[in-house]
Write a structure and sequence with these properties.
Blueprint (H helix, E strand, L loop, with lengths): L1 E6 L5 H13 L3 E6 L9 H8 L15 H8 L2 E7 L1 H9 L5 H8 L4 E5 L3 H5 L1 H12 L3 E2 L3 E4 L5 E5 L3 H15 L1 H10 L13 E6 L4 E2 L5 E2 L6 H12 L3 E6 L11 E4 L3 H11 L5 E4 L6 E3 L20 E3 L3 H10 L7 E8 L7 H12 L3 E6 L10 E8 L6 E6 H22 L5
Parallel strand pairs: 1-2, 1-3, 3-4, 4-5, 8-11, 8-13, 11-12, 13-16, 16-17
Antiparallel strand pairs: 6-7, 9-10, 14-15, 17-18, 18-19
Helix pairs in contact: 1-2, 1-8, 3-5, 4-7, 8-9, 8-10, 10-14
Length: 429
């Protein structure tokens, strides 16, 4: 499939390099067409090195080839990421001041735009009208994520992770039919022919859990759901079907998943036992509250005049990961491959990784993803560091970077486990 990757002039342009890598790894030819402003964020040598093709922004290069028309006509798919507010406005107005504008006017294939801008720009009536007009014309405009933006700002307008953009782009191509649709149907799983995840059902839990103290208050944790969302996007890009169990999260569940919402640990346990009963893989990325109040007040606990405070007795919550493994090992209905997460803090005697190794042995899952949490680490952040431990004795894999990159490391380890079992004819533990 021939893909044109347009890159707008926003600070999120660096993420398009990761998107380009996904496209190339899936075996497609990709021509990158940035705007002039995009090259101020990521230079032409980067795009040329990653795509293996020359990069240009104007209509006066290769005039005999009539590239400003040819690229749009020959493309099977056009994806623009990031699509700035200015680029959306120019596209809606049919303006073509540069090569990318000409490509968008001449393309007869599916066009996918991934917006990225500040919240005020995304919500401005002009942008809202431009997006509505583009969608009426058949352009697939992806909803942006909500999260950290440039500087200290946060809100809707964040560029979706590359795996999500690529998954939605392949869906758009598949729905279009024709050659692009046929190739997308194959490469929606590509790494499809190559990925052992293709065609499988994967259950992913994400976010935190909340344990009621009274009708107003609860015990919970700081999980944002970002890592579970990134995992779902990576698994979708590998061609799997995703059932997404969402606890309280600060981000929206990823598009293309079947979502079950839960709040308490008990609700999470019930959802896991139900959704993973006929699944191939269970990934327990949710941050589960380990304790809950032994008694839940039926009315709001009031402050008293004597200045005293209530005594709250805690009890253990169900161990969801251990229950899933025990169900599987007893021959019950449960995914044969189970991935756990361990959010750990170290102390003067033991490192987080050592605690993780002990948890892997205790829980009995196939993979355990360990990360060190604490003030400013992991929860709610866009960057992370994970170490993937394997029950089969494979070397631990450590990955530092975005949560999408961490998700890629987990998926790679999971694919290795599945491929090994397929080769050995062993579907379960």
């Amino acid at each position: 499939m021939e893909v044109v990757l347009g890159v707008g002039g926003g600070i999120a342009a660096y993420k398009a390099a990761l998107l380009l890598r996904l496209m190339k790894e899936a075996g497609h030819g990709v021509t990158v067409v940035p705007t002039d402003n995009a090259l101020r964020f990521v230079g032409a040598p980067t795009w040329e090195a990653l795509s293996g093709r020359p990069v240009r922004t104007d209509t006066f290069t290769d005039v005999p080839e009539v590239s400003h028309v040819r690229l749009g006509r020959e493309a099977d798919l056009v994806v623009v990421a990031p699509a700035t507010a200015d680029l959306l406005a120019r596209t809606a107005a049919g303006m073509a001041p540069d090569l990318l504008g000409n490509v968008l006017l001449t393309a007869t294939c599916p066009v996918v735009l991934a917006p990225a801008m500040h919240t005020e720009m995304w919500r401005h009536p002009a942008t809202v009208a431009n997006v509505a007009l583009l969608r009426e014309r058949g352009v697939h405009v992806i909803e942006p994520d909500s999260g950290r933006l440039t500087g200290a700002d946060s809100g809707p307008g964040r560029l979706p992770e590359p795996a999500r953009i690529w998954a939605e782009a392949q869906d758009a191509a598949a729905r279009a039919g024709g050659r692009a649709g046929r190739e997308a149907a194959v490469t929606a799983a590509e790494p499809g022919a190559a990925s052992p995840l293709a065609g499988r059902t994967v259950v992913i839990s994400a976010g935190g859990t909340r344990e009621a103290l009274d009708p107003v208050r609860f015990l919970g944790n700081r999980s944002s759901g970002k890592q579970g969302t990134a995992l779902a996007e990576a698994v979708l890009a590998a061609g799997a079907r995703v059932r997404f169990i969402a606890g309280p999260m600060s981000v929206a569940p990823p598009a293309g998943t079947e979502v079950t919402a839960v709040e308490s640990t008990q609700e999470l346990l019930e959802a896991v036992l139900s959704e993973a009963a006929d699944a191939d893989v269970l990934i327990m990325a949710a941050a589960v509250a380990d304790f809950r109040p032994a008694q839940v007040a039926t009315s709001k606990i009031k402050k008293t005049d004597d200045g005293g405070a209530p005594t709250i007795v805690l009890e253990r919550t169900p161990d969801v990961l251990a229950t899933a493994v025990q169900t599987r090992d007893a021959g019950g209905p449960m995914a044969p491959v189970i991935v756990g997460f361990a959010a750990e803090t170290g102390d003067e005697h033991t490192t987080p990784l050592e605690y993780g190794r002990a948890k892997l042995a205790r829980k009995g899952c196939d993979l355990l993803v360990v990360n060190e949490v604490g003030d400013g680490k992991v929860f709610g952040q866009d960057a992370t560091e994970v170490t993937v431990l394997s029950a089969d004795g494979a070397e631990p894999v450590t990955r530092t970077g975005s949560k999408a990159e961490a998700a890629a490391a987990v998926v790679e380890a999971l694919e290795r486990v599945l491929a090994s079992r397929e080769a050995g004819g062993a579907p379960g533990r």
